Amino acid sequence: MTRVLSDYQIGTADGTSLGSSIVKVMFKALKEKGVAFYPNTKALDLVLKNGVVTGVKVRSGNEEFVIPTKNVILATGGFAHNQKLVKKFAPEWAGLPTTTAVGSTGDGLEMAVEHGAKTAYTDVVRMNPSVHSENGVNSSLSAARAEGGIMVNLDGKRFCNDYYPDYTQLSRWLQKQKGSMAYIVIDNKAMKASKRLQGFKDKGYFLQADTLAELAKKMGVPPKADTVRM
User: Fold this and answer.
1) 126-230: what fold?
2) Which of 27, 84, 117, 192 sits at a 20 to 30 Å CA gap from 93?
3) 0.85 surpassed by pTM
4) Residue 147's closest CA among 22, 8, 14, 19?
5) What residue spans in the chain does CATH classification 3.90.700.10 cover?
6) How far apart are the first and last CA of the chain?
């Protein structure tokens, strides 16, 4: 079961990860269709004949081989984990943490370009304005905003509408705040509604207090700020 979070996003009924839920459904459907899977297999190059792609060269373990095909769809993700490509195509976001898949290194993009493929809209990047970064681990806290959390800057003031108009614009506004940082303030109702948030709480990602005044003190923001107040 899913539920609408905004005009551009849905979530699971129990607050678990939407991505893993989608994968389970897709995997089941593809198995029923008899689609062949090649897990732990890396695409190395496209195979062309007379200018037409006829297959993909791959590596699985120590073995390299070609998967022949009539058509190839490059669904290899973006390039957020490749700072070289970020600096080239979207320098505005260079050096910032990302919660995208670690495999989003742009290798599929580079593979296609090497064979003369044209690119478009490579500067269009969807940034996440709610990322918790700790010890090299970046976690998306979008679930906190989805459950009604509000974003406040280091002065305890709200500076955006938390979920609108889109992730990237929110990220731009966030970058203009003091320290390019913000807090997401949620209540216990939001915590109980999301298993993901409960998991993050267990990892120590949250500051917790019984009153807003106590929370403001822990956050280091003015207790009488326009947003965080009794």
Assistant:
1) Flavocytochrome C3; Chain A, domain 1 (3.90.700)
2) 117
3) no
4) 14
5) 126-230
6) 36
